[in-house]
Amino acid sequence: MKQQASKRKNSQLILMILAFLIPVIAAKILLASNYKGDVKTNGGELLNMTSTFEQIAKSPIEAKKWQLLYLTNQACDEHCQQQLYFVTQTYRALGRLQERVNVGSLTLDSINSDTENLQGIDFKQQLLKAPLETLEDSVVIVDPLGNFVMRYRLNGTKQQRLEKSHDMLLDIKRLLKLSRIG
User: Fold this and answer.
1) Cα gap 182→161, rounded to integer Å
2) Would you list the domain boundaries of the chain?
3) Helical packing angle, 78-93 and 158-178, nearest 10°
4) DSSP one-letter string for 73-131
5) For residue 129, what are the CA distances in angstroms to 54, 106, 157, 166?
């Protein structure tokens, strides 16, 4: 009888030790294999560019702020103005987080900033050193260190562009929440 009770206590002790060791061992294996899981974005494309903002733009990035920029190699026509509308609406939707983000454009030519969708916000215009084909007609998020982080293509119907800008808002909020810089 005592022998059975002793075996039961030993098996319970072994089960408790395994219950604590198995998750630790699994975590160590996942870390050693450099497993990071799925990276989730709401609709943006994660960028892995070797070029930084300073290498592409004529003027330096404003320190300690994230950038939400519309990038185009073309003159700012009606399409460009529509894209800027969605970018500025996304910026306005940030609310109190606006102080951590600059909104602007990165173009070959300057943009007329007297349009009504640019009124009331501090819109920064940056000029490209040379045409940039890889990010043409895109909205990009640039981190405070000058790295291009994400890209959004706002094309399609007005409803689709509205949904994309909402996705962009969610991604920016997540980046700002997780970021320790900017």
Assistant:
1) 27
2) 1-37, 45-177
3) 40
4) SS---HHHHHHHHHHHHHHHHTGGGGGGEEEEEEESS---TTSGGGTTS-EEEEEBSS-
5) 10, 10, 31, 30
Which one is the CATH code of 45-177: 3.30.230, 3.40.30, 1.10.10, 3.40.50? 3.40.30
Over residues 34-57, the pLDDT tens digits come to: 776 665 667 788 888 888 888 888
Q: Is the pLDDT of residue 113 over 80?
A: no
CB 44 within 8 A of CB 153: no
Which strand ranges, in their side-by-side order, compose the sheet holding 101-107? 45-46, 148-152, 138-142, 66-72, 101-107, 123-127
Which pTM does this prediction carry? 0.74
Nearest to residue 102, comparing CAs of 72, 54, 141? 141
